[in-house]
Give the backbone structure.
Amino acid sequence: MRTLCFLLSLLISAQAFSWSNHTLVSHQLLATLPQVRDSAPVKVESLESFLLANEKALEVFLDQQEQWMQNNLWHYAPRPQDLAFKATGSKDDIRTRFAHAIRVNPNTKWPLYLQLLPGEKRLSPVIKPGSVSTLKNFDHLVSVQLVQLRPGDKASPVDIVTTATDEPDHGLDIGLFTDSNTDYGKVYGFGKQPFGNPNLEYGTQAPFHMGFYHESSILYALGGFLKQTYPEYRIQLFKQLSEFAFTQGHDYWGWRFMGWGLHYLGDFSNPYHVMPVPGNNTMTTLWVGLKNIIGFPEGQNQAIQLASNRHTVLEDFQSLVMSQAYEENNIQHPTIQALTRQKAARVYENGHIVTVISQQAYEKAHDIHEVLEQTMPEQYVDDPVVEYSELSAKSSLQETVLKTSGEDGYNKLINIITDLLGGFSENGASYVEAILSAKTFQNDQAKLD
Ligand SMILES: [Zn+2]
């Protein structure tokens, strides 16, 4: 049983990034949500200042929150008691105490900055990707402008939240497992990395950005590790922290935590983040795993390679198309229109993360797989000996699609991405409206008092 479990764990294509630049998928949603768009600019505040000003309240809040997580999540690894946040009044280690209590990478830089959209420029001091990310590979950050903020500056909620939606991919969830070779991973209580390659730096964040809630009971029975995923924890953690910050009157951090939570909802709009191997059903997955055990590993290696190639090619196409739309200020582009809010969203309930939000993307996985097969060159999505990322195909991907499957194929891809983004728009708006309804209620109460 152990062996099968281990082998199945290798079956997951643990690519940890979904939409390579989350500001592309969040900006229009936030800019058209009246509650965000019409909120006045707020004063920028450093993390230390926020934490020191609320230290005692935070100690109580984080304790209650831990209880809540233990009682309510689909899967949870309780926080070791030693990591509980204690109000000591010391400024020197307050970031680390906070990072430990919410179990994120304590080397996170928590800078004050804004990440601008492709093509957007502002006359503020520019900072380097290395001041924002702890990763060695900065990926899309090299092609966008990052501008510095200082404590006391004013920033708009749209800008703060948009920027924050990309932050969890800058190192926040790196190295959290006992086999991650970090001192904090050894004490965080998440055990060994359940799937993915612990030797790939960004791969260690995969179990925090992918969640598998809809597999068959036989797959869970054989691969218990499939349950050990934590996006639901992160979505709730940052929703509650956002509400806490607003309640305490520290709106800058209210908006920023909201953006962090939205990141994981964005991941969930990508079917490759809610399913171990999109395109394979349970029986195929099991069969391939079994063949591997009896000495025929080709099927397994092929399944991983194909899922990885398809995931990357989908993301490359989406980021090219949307970056171009933003650069050309083409707000009418279908992908951007899909994010535009016109009415209030579904009323948020805690259970929706598993039952509605991840379910929607799960159901679309098969269609995505088919459309990629129909529209992309076979070499990119159907050839297991190819490592797509080594082909340097991204810069000409749009032309390649046109050559391979014509305007029809190109539009099919746009349509399916538009559909995924429409799901994110509804789910993201539902989340934001839930946080802000608590804020409005509290402001009204304050006025009455
Ligand atoms: Zn992510």
User: Anything to note?
Assistant: Strands lie at 42-43, 113-115, 146-148, 154-155. The chain has a mean pLDDT of 89. The pocket of zinc ion is lined by residues 18, 168-169, 209, 263, 267 (CB under 6 Å).
